[in-house]
């Protein structure tokens, strides 16, 4: 149906999340119609992002610099941390402009069915970081799904051992069970942060 290079482009685009066969075809036909300079800019942006953006060695945020901007900022409260599952959740919280502390990105949630346990996530790094830096409060900004609940409680048990006085809280969600943090609007998320309660 397609000439070989076009078929390959469609195939690659279809690997992207949320891109079905029809969208991939539409994107490919759109791209092939654009000037070569535009395509080069896109290809370069992809490569540059891939080559320069790494995990922050402290909080596991994506950053072209290590430590990331948030970990380096003297403006941020070093004793108030927010634990999130993914970088997209950190971005959602930053959008509220309400949180002035630091982060720790887990890289996912515990999910035995998908082979994701403590060692597949940045949990041991969090425990070591808490033991060393001794923050005042740790907010779990994690969606209240089954996996989210398990993850929060496993981490809580680990942290109780290294820092018995650590105050641990969770977002007060005005959201349905299992709803994703990233889809919450800024006002709802800011309120959930403000009204956080002890875990
Ligand atoms: Zn960082």
TrEMBL record:
Q: Which CDD domains match?
A: TOPRIM_recR (cd01025)
Q: Which top-level group of life is the source organism from?
A: Bacteria
UniProt-listed InterPro entries: DNA_Rcmb_RecR (IPR000093), Hlx-hairpin-Hlx_DNA-bd_motif (IPR003583), Rcmb_RecR (IPR023627), Rcmb_RecR_Znf (IPR015967), TOPRIM_dom (IPR006171), TOPRIM_RecR (IPR034137)
Locate the Toprim domain: which residues? Answer: 79-174
Q: Which SUPFAM superfamilies would you find in this protein's record?
A: Recombination protein RecR
Keyword Disulfide bond: yes or no?
A: no
List the PROSITE patterns hit by this protein, alphabetically: RECR, TOPRIM
TM segments? none
The record ties this protein, via SMART domains, to:
HhH1 (SM00278)
Zinc finger C4-type: from-to: 56-71
- Keywords of this entry: DNA damage, DNA recombination, DNA repair, Metal-binding, Zinc, Zinc-finger
**Protein family membership:** Belongs to the RecR family.
**Task performed by this protein:** May play a role in DNA repair. It seems to be involved in an RecBC-independent recombinational process of DNA repair. It may act with RecF and RecO.
Q: What is this protein called?
A: Recombination protein RecR
Phylogenetic placement of the source organism: Bacteria, Bacillati, Cyanobacteriota, Cyanophyceae, Thermostichales
* Gene, per the UniProt record: recR
